[in-house]
Write a structure and sequence with these properties.
The protein is 45% helix and 24% strand. It has a 4-stranded antiparallel β-sheet. It is globular, with a radius of gyration of 17 Å. A hairpin with a 2-residue loop joins strand 7 and strand 8. By secondary structure, it is α+β, with helices and mostly antiparallel strands. The mean pLDDT is 94. It has 8 helices and 10 strands.
């Protein structure tokens, strides 16, 4: 895969790869298209890949004990789905990932990427930046869920994902915010 297709994602994570490192990174990736509604990752299913969302919108989610889907996070173009090391245990997925629109992903073998990180300092720094961002996203969401009002969480959602409110089904947004769909409706009417 040509590194040009990956460049926006690399830049988003504030990484600068030399042409050689970029070519090595791109060589690991294959481009895959998925239709809207595809379950890319399934709970407890074997998975050994890293995924970069090049185009479209996706989400990660879990199913609670009542059978309700709880959205963990939304992903837009040029973002990385949680890294293999954070979303798997013993090689099996800890969560689901669903495409919410038609999506294009760059997919690579996680073991090969880890090997490249070991031998290439630039790629290692990129991988570490991705892991730091993943940790920061999780901590920020935990803080918001524990100490912010529903209105504040919705306002932050709108800042983080400016166009998603018009694309994503509102029950998914409500579950991401930790509120009911009725509460989300009321908040939206308030402006």
């Amino acid at each position: 895969m040509k590194v040009e297709r990956l460049q926006k994602t690399i830049n988003k994570y504030n990484s600068h790869l030399t042409q050689k490192s970029g070519a090595a990174f791109g060589a690991l990736c294959d481009e895959h298209n998925f239709k809207k509604g595809t379950i890319l990752l399934k709970l407890n299913q074997s998975d050994n890949a890293e995924y970069i969302l090049l185009k479209g919108t996706a989400r990660t989610f879990l199913v609670n004990t009542e059978g309700e889907e709880i959205t963990l996070y939304f992903f837009e173009e040029n973002t990385i789905i949680p890294p293999y090391v954070t979303r798997t245990e013993n090689g099996k997925s800890l969560l689901y990932c669903e495409t919410l629109t038609d999506c294009t992903f760059a997919k690579m073998n996680a073991g090969q990427f880890e090997s490249l990180m070991i031998e290439n300092l630039e790629i290692r720094e990129f991988g570490n930046t991705v892991l730091r961002q993943e940790l920061l996203n999780k901590v920020q969401k935990e803080i918001r869920m524990a100490s912010w009002t529903a209105k504040q969480r919705l306002e932050q959602f709108r800042k983080d994902f400016s166009m998603l409110e018009n694309i994503v089904p509102h029950p998914m947004i409500a579950s991401y915010l930790g509120i009911t769909n009725v509460s989300l409706s009321r908040l939206r009417k308030q402006g």
